[in-house]
Amino acid sequence: MLFVAFILFAHFSAYGQVVIEMLKDGGVYKIPCVVNGAKMRLVFDTGAASVCISESIAEYLLENDYLSKDDIVGYGNSTVADGRIVNNIHIILRDIEIGGLHLYNVDAVVIEGQKAPLLLGQTAIQKLGKISIEGNKLVIESVTNEVDHSRIQTLLDKGNDYYSKGNYYAAMTPLAEVQRLVGLNPEGLYMLANCFLNCKEYDRALSIFNEWESLYEENASWLNKHQMYRTASIIYLIQEEYYKSISIAKKDLDNLTILINDKDNLSYACTSAAMEYGIIGDCYSKLEQKSFARENHEMAINLYMKGIGAEPEDVAHGKVHDDTLGAYLYNYAFDHSVYSNEFQDYMCFACQCNYQPAIELLKKNDLYDEFMSRFNRIAGIK
Predict the structure, then answer these.
(1) pTM to 2 decimals?
(2) DSSP letter at 217?
């Protein structure tokens, strides 16, 4: 378990300049942004006062869980530029990120028939600071509100203390509050995402991952990347988005190659890579692509054994009681026909690791004595 004792918040500077290059498209300026974790481009309209989005974008956000029904706060009417009165829906956008700056809990209107996907008015963007336009560049002189440093530090101390004790539910609240007030740095975002994961708040964890991806991924350390990739690959597996899980896990495997020649971190690299191969294997099992599942589960077994310094003979003779290795062996057994010798052998290997699900399964089906007797004869165990 990682305990981060240093300061975790990221956006503490009282004054700074952010320059955003705008794309001119059909007479309007578009700005890259992230809305509730979804990457898109907004139309910057200096004459508009509110934030407006189109029905199609609202539907996309809702269908892909970037927006929930709880974010819909009311219904009404709007007068558009040509004088018509059209229906609208009032919603809350929890987070709009522009150039690393954040607008939280933004009131927005979904307007019937609006063509612009997302329109942000000058009144709204000025909440980030004083703005000016220089050619195709939007310059924001960001001045943060006065921050109660002592309160932030108290929240961080609580979050760190609870996190170090494995009390993720208690740690989640103070860390989320710091994130809301001033933002967390990459390590802090991992801690918060891990809290959400352990508390089964999967969508909130992915929202943190998406923010980390847009702000920090490019320059993050290999360890921070591994932590965030692992978190996301696990969640996508749980949510049955198998190809997304595989894609993220493979990114982590590429990330971990930096440690191949690092003797000091070789054990960690092997066991970490084993986890990602295990996740990939599990995904392919769910997709019923057994050959890919076997290939990746086998890699997970070999790398994990290398990482913990275990030999096959030690495992066969019951000298390695390790639940993680037992789980890999158990999953690998199911990549084979349940009538095959391979299934029997790897199920017995899992039992020799004292992996209880394997032992309980065989005993429940009155197969434990039969399988283990055959396995012991082959392994030369008396």
Answers:
(1) 0.61
(2) G
